[in-house]
Structures are given as structure tokens and as C-alpha cells.
Amino acid sequence: MRTTRLVSGLLLAAALGLTGLPASAVTPAELQQNFNAAARASVPGFTGFSAQRGRQFFNSTHGNDWSCASCHTQDPAGPGRHAKTAKDIAPLSPLANPQRFTDAAKAEKWFSRNCNDVLGRLCTAQEKGDVLAYLMSLGK
Amino acid sequence: MNNTTKRWVFDTTVWTSAVMMTFVLLIHDVAAESRFPPVANDKWQAECGSCHIAYPPQLLPAASWRRVMSELDKHFGADASLDAASAAGIGAFLESNAARGKRAAVAAGTLRITEAPWFRREHREVAAPVWKGASVKTPANCGACHTTAERGDFSERGVRIPR
């Protein structure tokens, strides 16, 4: 009796766990592999991603008003604050915040919105991969 | 008591009661309007609540929400684009619970909730420096003073103005 209850409990938990995952669940490393494949296909002479280049990109205003750091700060392993609405923003680095970069569709949505805000265009696979390399290099 | 005095007592009583009654009704009205009935929608909460609190649908009339949802790529100076299915679902939720009556009045030429006549009226006692304080920064930051804003409760009981 007790075993039956335990088994059904576990099954229920497993079912809930599975349905609770977003359709586009990934790990940050898998997401990086996707960017890698896209960059290989689109960038002539692609030689991989660079955390150093990602850091510069992250902190640059690219000739406009905002940088990524305007909201995520120059330490994206710590909390940020929205430059316009003042809302708190959870840390962006996946080491500091394990929920980050675990949903490919969500990551793509934010890259496209925020690249438009900062650069006035979408980011390339090279730029996204560099930024992710930078974020993945930041500790807790 | 002569007739003039009686008349005076009667008049004063009637007028005082009338004024008090109006006051009670007014307070009741305002209190009732500052706690929005808990309407919820997961998509609205998640999407609208990611850059600011998810502003309750009752804060803007349906026509304004329709415009907000049709201009998400230029949302108050930021790109808040959404996939078509999410935008349609959230738009329908906002419009069906939108402001009616007094709250439906908007300032011409803007979609800003903070410029609506009712918003200005209800915040007229908030001094200018409070709006610019480090923890408030913008009138759009409801939660800085309305500690229960996330629950749709904007009643005065939950207000703590930071110093």
C-alpha cells in the first residue's frame, strides 16, 4: 500500500516535472553550440567565441545611449536594475543564476529585443556567442 | 427657541449630514477603486511583469490597451516585441478587463497611465522630490511606494513613501 502510494507520488512528480519544462529547454552549453553552428554557417573564417570580446561588446554603447550593462551592470553575476523602470533584474550569468539561458526561445526573444534597443539591429551569432561566453566565464 | 433659531439648527444639521455623507461615499468610492478585483492571466503576468509590474488591465481603457499591444516594438522607448499568439492572448485579457467609467479617462496623445487625470488627482499630495528619489526613480515604479501593487492592491493602507 505504502509502496503503491510512493510509486504514484513519484510518477505524478515526474509528470509535473516534465510538463513544467519549457518546450525549448536547453543548457547554456547547448545554446552555445547552437550559436556555434550558426556562426560557422554565416561567418567566413569563424574561429570560435571569445569571453574577452563578449565583455567589451557587453559594456559598449555602440554609438547609442544604452549598453547591455546599462541594466545588467558591469558585473552581470550580480543583480541589475532596469534603466527606465527601475525594476530589479536577477543576475544574468548562468553560474550566478541557474535559470538563465535554459530556454532557447526566451533567450532569443531577449537577445532580439535588447539588441534592437542597444544596437538598433539584431545581434549576429558571433556576438551572441561572445556575450554568452563572457557570461559563462563569470563566477557566482 | 424662536423660529429663526429652530430653522438655523435644522439647516445646520441637514447640511452637516449631507457633507459628511458625501465624504463617506467619496472615501468608499476611492477605496473600492484602488483594490482591483484579482483578475489573472499567466502570460500577462510573465510578459508584462518582466520589465515593470504587470499593470492591472483596469488602469487603461480598452482602446489604449489595443494601441499598446499594436506598438510593442516601440514600447515607451524599448523593444518589447512578442510572438503573435502571446500578444493576441494578452491583448484579449487586457481589453476584456479594461478601465470603465471615471478611470477610462486618458490624457490626449499619450498612453501613459501616469498622465491620466485620475492618476494625477490621486497623487497630487506626493511632492516632486519623492518621484525622483533613488528608490522610486519614475512614477511607473508603483511598487516603490505601493507595497502591495504586485497583488493589484493600491489602497492607501499599503502605501509606504520612502524617505
Give the structural class of chain B.
mainly alpha
Tally of separate domains of chain B: 2
- Sheet-strand content of chain A, in percent, reads under 5%
Order of helices and strands of chain B: HHHHHH
> Can you tell me the overall shape of chain A?
globular
Give the oligomeric state: heterodimer
Number of strands of chain A: 2
N→C terminal distance of chain B? 56 Å
Domain count of chain A: 1
Name the pair of protein chains with the most residues at their interface, and give those residue counts.
A-B, 11 and 19 residues
Summed up, the helix count of chain A is: 6
Q: Determine the structural class of chain A based on helices, strands and strand pairing.
A: mainly alpha
Overall pLDDT score of chain B: 89
Please identify which CATH superfamily of chain A we are dealing with. Answer: Cytochrome c-like domain
**Main β-sheet, spatial strand arrangement of chain A:** 1-2
Gyration radius from CA atoms of chain B, angstroms: 21 Å
- What is the succession of H and E elements of chain A? HHHHEEHH
The helix content of chain B, as a percent range, equals 40-55%
Share in β-strands of chain B: under 5%
Query: What's the main sheet of chain A like?
Result: 2 strands, antiparallel
Query: What would you say the CATH architecture of chain A is?
Result: Orthogonal Bundle
Description of the structure:
The complex is a heterodimer of chains A (140) and B (163). Chain A has 140 residues and is an all-alpha fold. Chain A has one domain (30-42, 51-136): Cytochrome c-like domain (Cytochrome Bc1 Complex, Chain D, domain 2, Orthogonal Bundle), CATH 1.10.760. Chain A is built from six helices and two strands; from the N terminus they run H-H-H-H-E-E-H-H. The termini of chain A are far apart. Chain B is mostly helical. Chain B has two domains: 1-34; 42-158, no CATH class. Chain B contains six helices and no strands. Chain B has helices at residues 3-34, 42-48, 62-70, 84-96, 117-122, 128-132. The radius of gyration of chain B is 21 Å and the shape is elongated. The interface between A and B is medium-sized, with 11 and 19 residues.
